[in-house]
Amino acid sequence: MLQGDCDAMKGKSEVFLTDTHAHLASARFAGEVPGVLARSREAGVGRIVSISCDLDDVEANLGLAATHPGVFATAGIHPCYVHEPGPADWRERLRNLANRPEIVAIGEIGLDYYHPPEDGSETTAWRLLQESIFEEMLQLAENLRLPAVIHSRESTPAVLAVLARFPAVRAVLHCFTGTPAEAEQALEAGHFLSFTGVITYPKADDVRATAAVVPLDRIMIETDAPYLAPVPFRGKPCEPAMIRHTCQRLAEVHGVTTEEMTITTSHNAESFFGLSGPLLGAGAAWEGGCESGECVIV
Ligand SMILES: [Zn+2]
Ligand SMILES: [Zn+2]
Asked: For residue 266, which of 9, 18, 44, 289 is within the disulfide window of CB 3.0 to 4.6 Å?
């Protein structure tokens, strides 16, 4: 671990959590984002990647990233929104917005075979539409040299097949609930796997078994807020502040300390998304971020 002349060496930084997947632009957080961020900071979260599902989200997340240190944005069309990604010129607008420096990834994009077609169309046509938008988004990621945040629901083999056609794109499969064999396949292709509060659920032994096979240098954590609140908040609206419970459970699964898992997952997020700069609440109690991108904040 290189520490260079980062803040860690000056003893100014502290361990922080990174929520790699939250939907701060969700209507559920309307008018509440400052409070959500303050509670996140209070709970030790230093960075949040705020994920977009359609063009409106991209614009909202860019606004949040531009005004809140430690918040980063993504640009992409979720597979459940491929029938209404935005206005007629959404492609051009998305391409332009994705070029902005606050955009750290293309996502979330992918295939969702769980929800029925949102536009009432026939399943085959709906899946073809999802796949064609997914490919377009991966092409955009390749062109812009950005990583991709992937949504897969009952579709992991198909998602991996599409990803294989874009070997230059490094991806994270978010809220991963696939089998250990599917995890191995994603890992062999160089991708990362990210786990949500699902890993804390009593009946989620299969997800914990999968998480156990993921090496520590390929693992990330997320809340997927406002969804999937971890135990002991299950059933309540989820916020990034709850992520430490997911981190703690994942640490237990891997037999490491929560602090070790916190540092590891934040380092992985920093290197995967290229995150740098001040943390949540910068200018207040802490300073952090390592300009070299090589160090872990300790
Ligand atoms: Zn998703
Ligand atoms: Zn999501």
From this structure: 18
